Amino acid sequence: MVRRTKEEAEQTRHQILDAAESLFYRQGVGRTSLEEIARKAGVTRGAVYWHFRNKVDLFEAMQERGRLPQEDLIEQLARNEADDPLLTLREACGEALRLIAGDERRRRICSILMHRCEYVEEMGDAAIRQHRNKQHMVEQLGRIFENAARLGTLSRNWPPRLAALGLHGMMHGLLSDWLSDPAQGDLAEYGPPCVEAFFKGLVRGSPEETP
User: Fold this and answer.
1) pTM of the complete model
2) Pair 20, 112 in one domain
3) Mind listing where the DNA-binding region sits, in residue ranges (predicted)?
């Protein structure tokens, strides 16, 4: 009986997350109330509060459901767990774009995070966390590029932090532009070659490298 209750509670939690994701995507985070989410999920508002403290808590749980496996790989690379960090990071970035392009849930979540949430007023705490997450990602990327510099594989043209900011900006830009206008092409096809071209300029001994 206890196991069944836990399973039912988990099912209810997923129903609420599914409803929130659908409404956030369709009408935006700011215009969606917890009451609307409860109705769409077929539960009471009390059930929503049983699982989530508030809209920000629900929003962040939805975001976590879309977490990419490549994010864990980047954490590992930052701890110096690769013989060729540039190659491994390049492959991870290309695969991340392919994964998002082919996964409807992750596409919706990315679109909500980038284009359907006003990070003001009640979502102010989410804005702070988003900023911290970006800072953390740039720091992790910076450590990976520092590892590559120590191994002698990073171009002298690229200080590690500059390479981290450049890669983060390119990935964010590719994804944001495609989500705004998917008709421009298949991100899974043109995204990875963009990543490869960027990384060619990062490698020690590239034609563009300063002697």
Assistant:
1) 0.89
2) no
3) 33-52
pLDDT means per 10 residues, the chain with 211 residues, are: 72 96 96 96 95 95 89 88 90 95 94 92 89 94 95 95 97 96 95 97 79 64
Does residue 208 fall inside a structural domain? no
Whole-angstrom distance between the N-terminal and C-terminal Cα of the chain? 71
Rounded to the nearest 10 degrees, the angle between the axes of helix 55-65 and helix 34-41 is: 50
Residues with Cβ < 8 Å from 146, sequence gap 6 or more?
Answer: 160
- Radius of gyration of the chain, Cα coordinates, nearest whole angstrom: 20
The answer to whether 29 touches 56, Cβ cutoff 8 Å, is no
Q: What H or E segment, with its residue span, contains residue 134?
A: helix 124-151
Q: What is the CATH number of the domain that holds 23?
A: 1.10.10.60
Number of domains in the chain: 2
Domain of residue 25, residue span: 1-62
The verdict on 84 and 147 lying in the same domain is yes
**Long-range contacts formed by 179-185: CB under 8 A, 24+ apart:** 179/107, 179/110, 179/111, 179/114, 179/115, 180/115
| Four-CA torsion 60, 25, 195, 131, nearest 10 degrees | -40
